[in-house]
Amino acid sequence: MLLKLLLIVLSSHCVWTRKSEPSLDEADAGLFRGSDKYDFAVEVPAAGMECFWHFAHQSGSFYLTYMVQWVTGMANDHRLFVTVNSPQGELVASKNDAVGQMNFQTEVTGFYRMCLGNHNQFGGIRVFVNFGVIYEGFEESKTEMEEGEKVLNSTLAGIEESVQKLQNQIFHMWRHYNFARMRKGKGHYLLLSNFNYITWWSATQTLVILLSGYLQLLVLKRLFRTDSSRPRC
Length: 233
Fold this sequence. Notes:
With about 230 residues, the protein is α+β, with helices and mostly antiparallel strands. The protein has helices spanning about 1-15, 140-150, 155-225; strands at about 35-45, 50-55, 60-70, 80-85, 90-95, 100-105, 110-120, 125-135.
């Protein structure tokens, strides 16, 4: 009985002192490191909020880019309140603008929550979102460091490092291209919105002109019309 109690205490101590980032020899943990990226458009309803969770490992570079493309209904505020919380619920970054970029280093492994809040009470907002995590490197155990020193000067290690740098550079180029694409999409939706506005406003003005002309003609007819033989004017 005393032995079981001792094992329980030791196991609980291991859980509390365990590093949030799993070491490389923990192959059975089911966790891995990789560069994940996502981009899509989402509509946030009036006075609503849309939240997303993204898993990230420790010592990663987390980025979030968003842009308000267009608004619907009676919305007149293009700003969007965006927050990013850590797995413990702490606020990591926030932004209150129509276009924003956020970058920070992930200090804890877990699911990071991103929330998009709409200020407008009577109109929705369409937002283009682009987020992900970039891992520049990884920690190695002592045995792997010793093995890495032996093959540091090998051709294979040099090629692998060059390919990794090239992939990171290409990924950053893709981010800038994606941001430019979001700006182009925003201009397209703005042009479409202005076209619809001008079309409906022109149709309304035409209807008002025709209606006012008809009313004027009706008044003139009633002015000259009489039941007796004598005209009014």
